[in-house]
């Protein structure tokens, strides 16, 4: 058993020796070093196999960072670090591709596992030991030792693994400056995007909206390429940064189509029809392509976007030749810079170009050139349209000035005719006003005749019906009681038959005068309901008050005498009273019916009395 352990240790030392042919040396002046000499292999399936395998069978990488293109198999990497210091150091291993899905880092000294770390885009931010958008692993190197680092990298859209070893303070200083620069640049992109959107809000020019959306999407894309997506946008949603990068690239490409239509206004042609068809199919594919694996989405974007951009560039170039305006040239440069970025992405994705610490610099330069050309294009388009509008307005002003001269002459003639017409109109208006005043007086007389009873001078049945509706509404609105008294002269037919109709008319006038004299309030109204029958309308009067008034009227009439041709005529009346708060405005006749029933009861049971409704049983 001891012999087996010794052999295993010797085998491990041999592997370490082979792996550390060019070890990274940690000295007193160490700050950072790109790891460009390492070994990698696809064959191991576990850490034990990777540690025990012969490194001669591994691939050797020299003077370049690892870029295996669209390879999907997990890859194992190994390199050695030699600490020449007499003290323990804790450098940082930076994997400079924040889009990698999963990385397992094993740190070994001889056969002893010093540390094991898992990191990558597949883990939420809270699971990382170092809460950063970058993929960082802290290594602990014992004094005067040579240790081995083994990495297992798994990614669904290709293996691009640039590595850098940092002294902690140097990394913090570098990362602080880098994040400040990237933050300022991305913030500047977002500010340009919002400026374009604000200009769209003020001007309602659609090309400002398209430029704002393209710039905003480019800002998001740069954020994801820097790894800020997981940190700031969705810290608990993992594994989508690569997908979002591809989707944002496709969305930007799609947004260039309406912008081209608005800026260049290309003429109809076969090439333009083909471009429209291909772009339409591309837009439809965006609805479902994100459901596919990341590798297919990446390949789809890398293949289709350059094709569509070439169509854009060709059709824009044709428009530029026919109309070499600044906005057409600006859009052409925008598309070319975007195509350059896509060419860089293709070269990187296919493994033709190795990633490094400053790989994003090329992307930022090209994207910023694209954004500046884009903003210049829409502003030049706006200025051109404004100048055309000013020329049109000046032409229109000159035309209007000439028309105004003619119009002033016409107005002078019209003014003279107007004055003459006004004098004639004033004369006719005065005559009309005199006629209207006379007509109003006649209308008032007719209205008075229509609402007054000719015999008694009190209000007639027509007035009462209107007044009843008005008081019902007031009673319902204010929830106050409305009282009605129906009065009838007892045995009036006998008076007519005995003394004649002229005497009967005098009796009716006497009764109306007595009723009117017993009403004290301005709102109380008495009307002749018909023949010898009268009705009294008492707004906001409780039942007791209505009964008192009815009784006063009855007593006054009973004590009164009408003298006709030296003959004293005495007579009485009967009355019916009804009081209620109005509820239904559609049946005003309820009040008169109930009061009439009470009156009828009084007539049938002795006359010369006041009966309240409901009728006593």
- Indicate the overall shape: elongated
Distance between the termini: 125 Å
Low-confidence spans: 1-21
Computed over alpha carbons, the radius of gyration is: 52 Å
Structural class by helix and strand composition:
alpha+beta
Q: Quaternary arrangement of the chains shown?
A: single chain
The beta-strand count equals 20
Summarize the main sheet.
7 strands, mixed
What does this protein look like?
There is one protein chain. This protein has helices at 2-19, 47-52, 168-203, 206-225, 228-233, 241-263, 270-285, 294-322, 326-349, 359-451, 461-478, 492-499, 501-517, 543-559, 589-604, and strands spanning 24-26, 32-34, 38-41, 59-61, 66-67, 75-83, 92-95, 102-109, 112-119, 135-138, 145-154, 160-161, 163-166, 481-489, 525-530, 533-539, 561-564, 567-570, 573-581, 610-612. Mean pLDDT is 86; it is low at 1-21. It is built from 15 helices and 20 strands. The radius of gyration is 52 Å and the shape is elongated. Strand 15 and strand 16 form a beta hairpin. The longest helix has 93 residues, at 359-451. The termini are far apart. It is of the alpha+beta class. The strands form five sheets. Strands 1, 3, 4, 6, 8, 9 and 11 form a seven-stranded mixed beta sheet that branches. Strands 15-16-14-19-20 form a five-stranded mixed beta sheet, with helices on both faces. A four-stranded antiparallel beta sheet has the order 2-13-7-10.
């Amino acid at each position: 058993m001891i012999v087996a352990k010794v052999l295993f240790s010797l085998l491990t030392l041999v592997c370490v020796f082979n792996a550390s042919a060019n070890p990274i040396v940690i000295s007193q002046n160490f700050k950072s070093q790109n790891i460009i000499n390492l070994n990698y292999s696809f064959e191991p399936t576990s850490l034990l196999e990777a540690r025990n395998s012969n490194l001669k069978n591994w691939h050797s990488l020299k003077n370049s960072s690892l870029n295996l293109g669209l390879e999907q198999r997990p890859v194992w990497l190994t390199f050695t670090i030699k600490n020449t210091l007499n003290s323990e150091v804790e450098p940082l291993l930076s994997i400079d591709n924040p889009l990698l899905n999963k990385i397992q880092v094993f740190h070994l000294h001889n056969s002893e596992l010093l540390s094991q770390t898992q990191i990558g885009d597949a883990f939420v931010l809270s699971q990382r030991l170092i809460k950063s958008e970058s993929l960082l692993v802290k290594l602990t190197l014992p004094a005067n030792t040579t240790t081995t680092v083994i990495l297992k990298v798994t990614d669904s859209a290709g293996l691009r693994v640039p590595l850098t070893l940092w002294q902690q303070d140097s990394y913090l200083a570098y990362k602080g400056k880098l994040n400040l620069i990237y933050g300022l640049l991305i913030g500047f992109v977002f500010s340009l995007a919002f400026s374009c959107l604000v200009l769209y809000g003020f001007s309602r020019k659609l090309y400002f909206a398209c430029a704002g959306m393209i710039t905003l999407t480019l800002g998001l894309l740069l954020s994801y390429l820097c790894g800020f997506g997981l940190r700031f946008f969705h810290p608990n949603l993992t594994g989508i940064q690569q997908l979002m990068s591809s989707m944002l690239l496709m969305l930007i490409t799609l947004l260039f189509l309406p912008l081209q239509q608005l800026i260049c206004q290309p003429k109809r042609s076969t090439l333009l029809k083909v471009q429209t068809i291909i772009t339409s199919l591309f837009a439809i594919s965006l609805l479902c392509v994100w459901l596919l694996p990341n590798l297919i989405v990446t390949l789809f974007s890398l293949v289709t976007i350059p094709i569509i951009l070439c169509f854009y560039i060709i059709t824009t170039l044709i428009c530029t030749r026919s109309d070499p305006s600044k906005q057409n040239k600006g859009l052409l440069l925008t598309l070319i810079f975007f195509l350059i970025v896509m060419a860089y992405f293709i070269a990187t994705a296919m493994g033709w170009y190795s990633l490094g610490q400053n790989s994003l610099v090329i992307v930022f330069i090209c994207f910023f050139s694209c954004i500046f050309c884009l903003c210049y294009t829409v502003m030049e388009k706006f200025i051109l349209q404004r100048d055309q509008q000013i020329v049109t307005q000046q032409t229109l002003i000159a035309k209007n000035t000439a028309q105004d001269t003619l119009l002033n002459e016409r107005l002078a003639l019209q003014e003279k005719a107007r004055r003459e017409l006004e004098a004639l109109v004033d004369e006719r208006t005065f005559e009309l006003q005199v006629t209207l005043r006379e007509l109003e007086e006649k209308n008032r007389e007719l209205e008075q005749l229509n609402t007054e009873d000719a015999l008694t001078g009190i209000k007639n049945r027509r007035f009462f019906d209107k007044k009843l509706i008005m008081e019902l509404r007031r009673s319902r609105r204010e929830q106050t009681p409305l009282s009605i008294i129906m009065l009838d002269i007892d045995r009036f037919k006998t008076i007519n038959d005995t003394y004649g109709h002229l005497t009967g008319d005098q009796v009716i006038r006497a009764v109306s005068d007595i009723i009117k004299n017993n009403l004290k309030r301005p709102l109380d109204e008495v009307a002749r309901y018909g023949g010898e029958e009268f009705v009294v309308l008492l707004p906001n009067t409780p039942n007791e008050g209505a009964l008192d008034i009815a009784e006063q009227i009855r007593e006054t009439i009973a004590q009164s005498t009408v003298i006709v041709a030296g003959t004293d005529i005495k007579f009485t009346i009967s009355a019916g009273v009804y009081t209620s708060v109005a509820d239904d405005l559609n049946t005003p006749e309820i009040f008169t019916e109930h009061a009439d029933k009470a009156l009828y009861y009084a007539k049938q049971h002795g006359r010369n009395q006041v009966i309240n409704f409901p009728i006593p049983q």
